[in-house]
Amino acid sequence: MYKFEITNIIQQPNDNVTLTFKDLSGDYPAYKAGQFLTMSFTFGEREVRRSYSFSSSPDVDEPLAVTVKRVDNGEISRLLHHRTRVGDIIDVLAPQGLFSYEPEPESSRTIFLFAAGVGVTPLYSILKTALTRETNSKIVLIYSNGSPERTVFKDELEEWQKKFVDRLEIIWIYSNSKNLLNAHLNRENLLRFVNERMPENKHALFFTCGPVFYMDLVRFTLLGLGIPDADIRKETFHFPDEEDDEDEKDEIPVDTTSYDIILRFQGKEYELTVPYNKTVLDVGLEHKIKLPYSCKSGMCSTCISQCTTGAVRMDYNEVLTDREVEKGRCLICTSHPIEDGTTIDVI
Questions:
Q1: Nearest one of 108, 103, 115 to 193, comparing CA atoms
Q2: Residue 47's CB: how many other CB atoms inside 10 A?
């Protein structure tokens, strides 16, 4: 665990706030553009973790920063918006996340960034890194919002556009636009945006962040264009503070058996019994095992593990590919064993 001091609190449009930090630990690991920061809060004996994407770039001379949207019934987002002050100290974990950008200084490619609302946060970090580290690459940001007044980083992005006028293009999409054809990102204008800007050498990468339906639209449209799935990366924002919709909750599973498993972590083996209504992570934390986790919802990569014996089922998985799952990879935050003797190595 590391210590960060809040150095500035910047109010942003549409109920967002940017927090900048100073690393008091002095040895915080280097992060990659697109990754996220996990904060840890303790209330009595209860630990609560929340993850927020870096809006800062490791390749720009600027302080570490995250941007947080306020959630009406969100325990941590309300705390960060209303009860934190400059000078407060926050416990944080090392940077994490597979949604990251690896700059190639000699590359000449086009990077398409699709953002909706606060989903621009990790893409803003990637945009700055790509422009700074790759002098021959071009960046196209397609950015959807309700209106100009509700657009996060609008002024900052316009300054970057002025600085890199030949390499950065921003397509602003506002749902309050009088031109209804361009009020929302749809298949037709997405195809037009990409086809008109795709380089002749077809060397392009695609990043998207926003609601699930938005990212599905982007991904399936791009796949239809023949874009390789490996060149399409997405980051799913999940607000764990929000209450689940009762209509969307999964039915109680038919299998209500408790299974005995072996959990291996940091050179130690733990024999655990996992009941049907708890995950491997739940039981591990109950036994005071300091397992890595963040979102607890299958949305990030913090708790990726390897099932070496037996099998598990996952309630949700937004990270692992089908091939990785076939090879035994799992997310212990949503995993339930389905065989006695299942063995899981926490990576």
A1: 115
A2: 12
